[in-house]
Amino acid sequence: MFAEDGVKLPRIALAGTKVTYDKGTIADRLGILSKSGNPHAQAVGAIIADLQIEAEETEAVPFHRHGHDGTDVQYTESVIGKVDDWLARHGYPTTILGRAGKEFCIRYRDELISDHAR
Questions:
Q1: Cβ(83)–Cβ(51) under 8 Å?
Q2: Which residues contact 79 (CB under 8 A, 6 or more apart)?
Q3: Which of 28, 98, 102, 116 is 20 to 30 A distant from 4 in Cα terms?
Q4: Domain span at residue 47?
């Protein structure tokens, strides 16, 4: 009846919710980092802008950050696969060009490079 996920909620409350990820989490999962070593959400956003994403692969999620309220788009697991495929097709670039012409310099987590060097 209740899920044991740290918060006691009836399972019915969790039924039908799709699992989504923000761009920072996608960057972290795929090892896409800024020069300073942090997950590069902006670079992931630039890649996603280049992909064909279906409406059912996104969800608008409200946020409150630093005194600002708004909504942000989060993405399903399938989008993580599409971003990973994009990186492979483009040879794991170290610079990603955004739509407005901004260049995002990125590096990859070491284990990611060794996984793809095989």
A1: yes
A2: 21, 26, 48, 51, 53, 57, 58
A3: 28
A4: 18-113
Pairing relationship of beta strands 95-97 and 58-65 according to DSSP bridges: unpaired
Supply the DSSP string of the chain, one letter for each residue: -EEESSSEEEHHHHTTPPP-B-HHHHHHHHTEE-TTSSB-HHHHHHHHHTS---GGGEEEEEEEETTEEEEEEEE-HHHHHHHHHHHHHTTS-SEEE-TTS-EEE-EE-HHHHHHH--
95 belongs to a structural domain: yes
Q: What does pLDDT average to in each consecutive run of 10 residues of the chain (118 residues)?
A: 56 67 97 97 97 96 88 96 97 93 93 52
Domains held by the chain: number: 1
Residue 27 forms part of a structural domain: yes
